[in-house]
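Subject: design request, 499 residues
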């Protein structure tokens, strides 16, 4: 007996499901649609997967993608929806459910249509995966303990949906690293429909050896991905961005003006997550370009576009104590903060500074440190609103203060004083700012020093470049004549009567 051609097979089987389907297995908990199809094929007794495909999907197109199967509408029609609706299948049994929380509603609709209809664009294109640094390949993954458990309990193994998610590399049930099929075993076109048990040990690749801390991070990321799938929220990009910035600020990674200290954040991220970059899906962690701050810059600044759920999962693990913490922050990321988030941060800090100095009687240094405001800015602002303040006296000895006082009276600039005393410029500036009379003397003296220097320089120019016009002299580098015109015009006029 010869094997029927595909056309003969299709003609002979058009009424396969006219009666109650007899060989349709039940979908198992957590199983992917691809896994179910492989089990159907096994039970059908069909010699070729093409025949099973024709029965289920109504066409002899042989490929059945394990990540994004297509033609789900036809499958549901042929199985009389006993597996669920096309959308339920797409969300719960294919990778679309993994990407759905992070894509806009119109894009989700287009991706869903692409899974339902055979003729539509590839879902991977619609989800922007081809351009993503995370990559568009989804190696089939499985946990060896789950395989054994299923074989013992069910008599067959299954591909679990959660294990196929790109950010999941640990089995949460067994705390075991997942293994994945290597290139040549990866049934991309899926002419063979396989179950995990069909693959020999040589076809599997294991994770590189990782430290316990990295394994723990993988477990957290897996748990975050699972929680996000459970709450089925469609995230708003802008609110996510605000929630991430809020978490960074709570961790002390925001500067006084509300900007994030991305370099510091990058250092922490690299220290904690560097090892994960050896896993293909986390390769983006190796992008340590400090200018764009890698994944931190991508998700905390306004970069419109599709950002891979793996990146979100890593940043959530990095910034939040728990998924609940993340969800709470996301929910309270109020919309009005979007436009004036930085102003609010600055305003809050200043108010806190004022309260601590004016009512709690803290020293300005201590209050400035507590509110994250640079000391000199704190002094300037308190002065501008007329709040008296004191410095922590023990910071400077009497002898140092005396030295500072005499140098300020002499009109030395802050840089010179810092160099000679070894004190920080900000501290010197704050010291000067704390004593109005002293600072006024310093300002007058600074003016005089500058004026004398410009006068001396101008006289030297006039002597050495006699007959040269003032206009030409003004082009001499560092001539200072413009300064004298603005601040010392009477002297200049007297010195050069023709001016
Ligand atoms: Zn397992």
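Subject: RE: design request

Done. Sequence follows.
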């Amino acid at each position: 007996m010869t094997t029927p051609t595909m056309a003969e097979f299709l003609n002979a089987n058009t009424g396969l499901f006219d009666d109650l389907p007899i060989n349709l297995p039940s979908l198992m908990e957590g199983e992917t649609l691809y896994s179910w199809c492989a089990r159907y094929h096994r039970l059908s007794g069909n010699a070729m997967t093409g025949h099973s495909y024709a029965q289920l999907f109504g066409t002899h197109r042989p490929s059945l993608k394990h990540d994004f199967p297509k033609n789900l509408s036809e499958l549901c029609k042929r199985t009389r929806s006993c597996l669920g609706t096309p959308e339920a299948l797409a969300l719960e049994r294919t990778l679309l459910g993994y990407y759905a929380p992070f894509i806009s509603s119109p894009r989700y609709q287009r991706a869903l249509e692409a899974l339902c209809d055979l003729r539509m664009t590839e879902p991977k294109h619609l989800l922007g995966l081809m351009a993503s640094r995370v990559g568009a390949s989804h190696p089939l993954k499985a946990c060896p303990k789950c395989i054994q458990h299923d074989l013992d309990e069910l008599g067959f193994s299954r591909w679990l949906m959660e294990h196929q998610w790109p950010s999941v590399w640990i089995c949460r049930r067994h705390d075991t690293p997942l293994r994945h099929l290597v290139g040549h075993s990866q049934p991309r076109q899926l002419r063979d429909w396989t179950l995990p048990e069909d693959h020999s040990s040589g076809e599997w690749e294991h994770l590189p050896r990782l430290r316990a801390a990295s394994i723990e991070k993988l477990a957290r990321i897996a748990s975050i991905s699972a929680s996000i799938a459970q709450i089925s929220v469609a995230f708003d990009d802008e609110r996510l961005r605000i929630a991430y910035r809020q978490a960074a600020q709570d961790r002390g990674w925001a500067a006084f003006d509300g900007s994030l200290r991305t370099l510091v954040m990058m250092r922490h991220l690299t220290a904690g997550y560097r090892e994960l970059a050896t896993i293909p899906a986390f390769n983006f962690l190796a992008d340590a370009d400090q200018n764009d701050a890698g994944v931190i810059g991508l998700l905390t600044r306004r970069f419109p576009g599709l950002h891979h759920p793996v990146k979100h999962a890593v940043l959530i693990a990095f910034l939040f104590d728990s998924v609940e913490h993340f969800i709470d922050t996301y929910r309270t990321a109020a919309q009005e903060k979007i436009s004036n988030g930085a102003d609010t941060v600055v305003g809050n800090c200043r108010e806190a500074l004022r309260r601590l100095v004016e009512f709690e009687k803290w020293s300005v240094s201590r209050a400035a440190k507590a509110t994250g405001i640079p000391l000199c800015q704190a002094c300037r602002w308190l002065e501008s609103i007329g709040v008296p303040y004191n410095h922590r006296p023990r910071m400077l000895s009497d002898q140092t203060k005396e030295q500072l006082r005499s140098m300020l009276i002499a009109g030395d600039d802050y840089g010179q004083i810092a160099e000679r005393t070894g004190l920080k410029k900000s501290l010197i500036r704050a010291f000067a700012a704390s004593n109005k009379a002293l600072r006024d003397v310093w300002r007058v003296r600074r003016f005089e020093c500058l004026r004398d220097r410009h006068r001396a320089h101008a006289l030297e120019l006039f002597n050495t470049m006699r007959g040269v016009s003032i206009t030409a002299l003004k082009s001499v580098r560092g001539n200072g004549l413009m300064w004298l015109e603005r601040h010392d015009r009477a002297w200049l006029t007297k010195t050069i009567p023709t001016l």
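Residues 6-126 form one domain.
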